[in-house]
Batch of 3 targets.
Target 1
Amino acid sequence: MDTPTRSTADLTDQLLAEAAQFIDPLPTAFERAIRAVPRHLFLPPLIWLRDGHGGHRPCDRATDPDEWLSAAYSDAPLVTQFTDGLPTSSASMPSVVLRMLALAGLDRKSDRGRVLELGAGTGFNAALLCQLCGDQAVTTVELDPTLAAEAERNLKAVGHAPRVVRGDARAGWSAGAPYERVIATFSVDRVPSAWLEQTEPGGLIVTPWHSAWCSGYGTLVLTTTPDGGEGRFHSFASFMPMRGSAPSTADDSGGLPEQVTSSSLSPWAVAGGDLNAEFHIGLTVPGACYAWDASGEHAPTRLDVADDTGPSWATVDYDGHHADRFTVTQSGPRRLWDEITAAHTRWENLGRPSVDQYGLTADAAGRHTAWVEGADGRQPV
Ligand SMILES: C[S@@+](CC[C@H](N)C(=O)[O-])C[C@H]1O[C@@H](n2cnc3c(N)ncnc32)[C@H](O)[C@@H]1O
């Protein structure tokens, strides 16, 4: 194995400078924690880096130690595990980790309440939590027992011993409750009631968010109350979804016949990269998801829309010429394109709010109510 040429101290300086572009000024406690927790000690010899085309490429410490070490100190997420071709664990992007810790108020924390991390992964974030709150205060939960064991080893190697629990983080970890802070490092589309129950009133739950339509975008910060929680979304972060999600409740009882209509709503307006519009649709049209079909087999460009909880589907075709009229075919008990069109109209009528104008209230029974705050005050969505 070759020896890397750059020192980890230089690389850490560079990482801190990159992180400071997102958190300025970088809290002293964070700088100290990052300096005390060498990120490369948390990484396996084989990691996967973004390839710039939406995929990943391997980076092996044995054959490219310089690139591997530079990657370890880059402000980038590093995939550490693939399962069935999909990334299932990673060392999260350091600036995102720090922004979430800041949202959890850990940059200014002094009373050292208990903290629950959900998704131990490499153990890096748990090590930062130990630096900030003390090992005794930190519990981290990991579903994959092999990853949990590695996280424990990595933490030990840098002198930390928080409680590492093997299990499904959907259930939190009741034995250590109540927590003052709960921080998830995978995304959810609902806040599990166990998290609300195990967080003390006035505590914070910080969790990345996803919906079927807008996979992985936004971070929710809920302040807990005796009977639920309430809080806002923040427009950053994209995390892998929680594993072990409930099985789909697809209903195969057959649907309505196909209906062909035309629509003036461009599929690009709702699935073309406007994260604010896509976030609104994800929040308000549950279960709807999409995929682009540019094969030309059915139309020059087609948007395929499906319901991931049932048999409904829709297609929206662009004929290659007319950008003001699109052919829509819908089938099943839900008229998905009609729902999406209504949601988009509502988003426009609300003044095209951005992700950080949205919030969520969860009650003790697990009911979620999403809302948006605009010029006219708070409105349910
Ligand atoms: C982005 S990685 C975590 C990064 C980690 N915090 C770190 O500092 O390296 C997400 C982790 O969450 C874990 N995970 C996903 N779903 C889970 C679940 N239901 N229960 C526990 N862990 C889960 C994955 O196995 C993965 O290791």
Target 2
Amino acid sequence: MASLEIGVIGGTGAQGKGLAYRFALAGHKVLIGSRNPDNAQKTADEVNDRLGVPAATGLGNLDAAARSEVVQVAVPWDGHEEAITAIAPALAGKIVVSCVNPLGFDMFGAYGLPLTESAAEQLQRLVPTARVVGAFHHVSATLLWNHHGPLRHGSDDGVDGTVADEVAGAALDPAGDRAAVLG
Ligand SMILES: NC(=O)c1ccc[n+]([C@@H]2O[C@H](COP(=O)([O-])OP(=O)(O)OC[C@H]3O[C@@H](n4cnc5c(N)ncnc54)[C@H](OP(=O)(O)O)[C@@H]3O)[C@@H](O)[C@H]2O)c1
């Protein structure tokens, strides 16, 4: 598997950090993005400490996207449109993987919002030339970081090979189906 540079937008969060760790475990370079580059570097240091090799670097979100071949988006739905708009030029023409769940939160916890487009669809509208893939929506950050066994992931016609083999293939186990399930 070729080594890629994979940017993780919102990579300081639990989900982005977990995905960054899995991508790096599979031999990829990871550019962890944040609105604050210092925080991004702290998370990169944490990932590198866990890996034992310097595979992760922290950057601002725009730099992380611009310098990456593939971009993973891991920001909350609240702020998604603004975050994507801010880095849209750097996403043009790239494979962009989104794990963003459009959720609201109240005193009882998370709930699905009544939307007319998914986060991936919104991303595609904001960056028409991006090759958008929805993946990892059902994979918990805890499991990613603690690396409990193989994961299976969804796929998408057209970009399946690249995402499955080069990105999601990072410590994940291709299933060939469209449902993200735990293996
Ligand atoms: N947590 C999970 O187990 C899990 C599982 C599946 C899918 N997901 C999805 O993955 C995404 C990230 O989840 P998470 O739990 O890691 O979220 P999170 O910790 O709330 O946020 C991730 C990062 O996004 C950045 N961020 C926060 N608000 C932002 C805003 N308004 N605009 C731009 N950036 C903002 C922050 O980084 P900086 O402050 O450093 O910029 C934060 O560290 C969500 O869309 C969630 O639905 C999460």
Target 3
Amino acid sequence: MRLVKLTAVALLGCSIPATAQAPDFSKVQIKAEVVAPGVAVLYGAGGNIGLSYGEDGSVLIDDQFAPLTDKIVAAVAGLGAKPVKYLVNTHWHFDHTGGNENLGKAGVTIFAHENVRVRMLAGSASVPPASPTALPVVTYQDGVSFHLNGDRIDAIGTDGGHTDGDTALYWRKANVLHTGDLMMNGAGFPFVDTNSGGNVLHLLHSLDHLIKVTNPQTKVIPGHGPVGTQADLIAWREMIAGAVDQIRQRKAKGQTLEAVLADNPLKPMEKPKAFISADAFVKAIWASLDASGAKPHKH
Ligand SMILES: [Zn+2]
């Protein structure tokens, strides 16, 4: 779980050293960007927040950190949106669920994949168990659909991959996809949290499904990074698949993990100051290949 912590801290912003526990939340500003009528993304610190707003009320997708809740609520109001009625967590990581307790106390109904509730209840070595008001109240495996604000928003319970409880959301009319951390735009390698049931093969299955759901006009809100397109989603999937193929071939030839790490075949693809190093990604792929077949694929 140490990797989770360091990675999430690293994702907060380039200026924050890995040793920092948290950013100075008093200095964080929440920036809203309207991506389609009634759909916005809110940037601050932590995972990108999605928002559906309109005559029926607001649906928030993820909520970053507890000290930011007031600013997030103010940013929602700043768009002329009604108060938040529902919240969907794309997965359990603390930079996506930190505001749950505040919003739960305010009467917001929280939705998530059932494994989000399981992991939040249990906590981990570095994350304490969540308080009851922070927990999802409505859980699902395959997904659930919201019929409001003139659109249908499908919360898709994917095959996971980043964790074992990843949800992506697709606005059918607005043609917007929120991927959660199944995609991090411009981040280099993906973060496969094997301590939270993540698996790179499941990630590829989930991405294949999301590519099928979208089209070239779809606006794609990633878990971190700027809004992208289906082409970005496809390129991300191809990069991951290429890396997996390289490691799989070496494993099939009988190379050990130590030998693969010594060769460092993914090093040329590594981005400077990347959140996930080539070594870390090789290890995650290796663990995923070892665990393959552990979970049936839904899609
Ligand atoms: Zn995450």
